Amino acid sequence: VVDDWSWWTAGVWRTVTTVSRRRVLAALGVLTGAAAGGGAVGTLGLPRSGSVAPAVVPFAGTQQAGIVTPPQAHLCFAAFDVTAPTRSALVSLLRRWSDAAGQLTAGVLGPGDSPEADALPARLTVTFGFGPTLFDAGGVDRFGLRDRRPAPLLPVPPMPGDALDPDRSDGDLAVQACADDPVVARHAVRTLARLAGRDAVPRWRQTGFAAARNLFGYRDGTANPTSERDLDTHVWVGADDQPWMRAGSYLVVRRIRMLLEAWDRVPVDRQDAIVGRRRSTGARLPAPVDAHVRLAAPAGNGGARLLRRGYAYDDGLTPSGHADAGLFFLCFQRDPRRQFTAIQRRLAANDAMRGFVQHRASAVFACPGGVGPTGWVGEALFS
Ligand code: HEM
After folding, report:
1. Distance from the CA of 220 to the center of ligand 1, in angstroms?
2. Which of 9, 77, 167, 227 could form a disulfide with 45 if both were Cys (CB 3.0 to 4.6 A apart)?
3. In testing the pocket of ligand 1, which one of 308, 332, 339, 344 has its CB within 8 Å of the most ligand atoms?
4. In angstroms, rounded to a whole number, what is the distance separating the alpha carbons of residues 164 and 361?
5. Neighbouring-strand partners of residue 362
6. How far apart are CA 123 and CA 215, in angstroms?
7. 292 CA distance to ligand 1 centroid (A)?
8. How far, in Å, CA of 305 to CA of 309, rounded?
9. What gap in Å lies between CA 168 and CA 252, rounded to an integer?
10. Cα angle at 54 between 122 and 76, to 5 degrees?
11. Which residues have CB under 6 Å of ligand 1?
């Protein structure tokens, strides 16, 4: 363990000329997590006053961070439309974004960063995804990628009760930034939007927060797959898909408004029956056939499971004065057709909760495998 490693960081930074800075930073990220009692790193590695060891989740790895990473407290999610005129401009954008994500997650930022960037890494993760339209935009193959579109990468088909807003749905590229500090997550998205320049424009954005209970008052996410075996079975893409998606995962996004005023008028024992769990403890109940957890459980869905990583959102009031709040549902899986779509089809038809929720936006993204220390996201897609 390096004693005064923040000083060391600054020294290394100045002397590094030929090695990728990001590679150095990725290594430092590991050190940062390990350095007991080390100081926090400020802009270009300078220590901050009163700092504590920052929590760094390395950007580089076999899989992208932000999928099985224990959920951070805050989310800033952004979808972009690609405006890059050529394939090489798109590649250059992905390289810039990967370099920046490596730096941001290590908590080391470049000159010219705005003052609020001077924050701890706060376990920041940046996860990238590619939407179906990147491969085929209404019959137009802008970047020569059509043959590489993975079969599972399809929009979720319309479901009963959907009230989707197209302006808040879909997108060519996705950036999921999660951190324990809301400003750090927002700053990451803002930095990437700035670096996109003329190659991508923001399409929609959503912030969210994690809490022990969702806005209906229930513990959420307890039945997620966690063992390596379950993750390989249900979350990570294997050899049966496009080779560039190996060790990647598919992300389905749904902005689900929760009708809180209606829910709050329902007695708690009825709420428990709708969810299929005890609100006070989260305990499983002998749930009715239309209870949410009963319909969503693997037993009724051919064994299909999801890694749910959603965040609550609260966007104030709708024009009619009702709470514009709910669950920004994010789930990772190997194949949305067999997983999210199959489960949601059952929920949309029969879930006792369906009268209290409304799906307002939808998007699907292919999140490729992780980025090597000198690589960039999606490298295998373009090679
Ligand atoms: C606002 C909407 C939703 C709310 C409030 C909600 C709430 C919950 C709660 C409280 C649980 C039990 C605790 C847990 O295991 O996490 C649960 C379980 C689950 N939910 Fe949802 N959920 C919502 C939407 C969805 C959607 C859209 C899907 C997928 C299509 C889904 C799939 C699941 C699954 C797979 C489980 C675990 C079932 C099991 O393995 O036992 N949920 N949900």
Report:
1. 7
2. 9
3. 308
4. 5
5. 254
6. 24
7. 7
8. 13
9. 14
10. 10
11. 214, 216, 218-223, 254, 256, 258, 275, 277, 292-293, 296-298, 306, 326-327, 329, 340, 343-344, 347, 357
Nearest CA, atom 4, ligand 1:
327
- Which residue's alpha carbon is nearest to atom 13 within ligand 1? 220
Distance from the CA of 352 to the center of ligand 1, in angstroms?
12
Of 333, 274, 284, nearest to 306 (Cα)? 333
Q: Each residue's pLDDT tens digit in the chain (383 positions)?
A: 222 333 223 333 332 322 344 443 444 433 333 332 223 333 323 333 344 445 999 999 999 999 999 999 999 999 999 999 999 999 999 999 999 999 999 987 655 565 555 557 999 999 999 999 999 999 999 999 999 999 999 999 999 999 999 999 999 999 999 999 999 999 999 999 999 999 999 999 999 999 889 999 999 888 899 999 999 999 999 999 999 999 999 999 999 999 999 999 999 999 999 999 999 999 999 999 999 999 999 999 999 999 999 999 999 999 999 999 999 999 999 999 999 999 999 999 999 999 999 999 999 999 999 999 999 999 999 99
Q: Which amino acid is at 360?
A: R
Q: Which atom of ligand 1 is nearest to the CA of 277?
A: 12
Residue 153 tokens read as 């990468």
216 CA: nearest ligand 1 atom = 5
Among protein residues, the one with the nearest Cα to ligand 1's atom 9 is: 220
CA 309–ligand 1 middle distance (angstroms) = 11
Tokens representing residue 359 in the block: 């799906």
Task: Please state at what angle helix 5-15 crosses helix 21-34, rounded to 10 degrees.
Answer: 170
The DSSP element (H or E) to which 202 belongs, if any, is strand 200-209
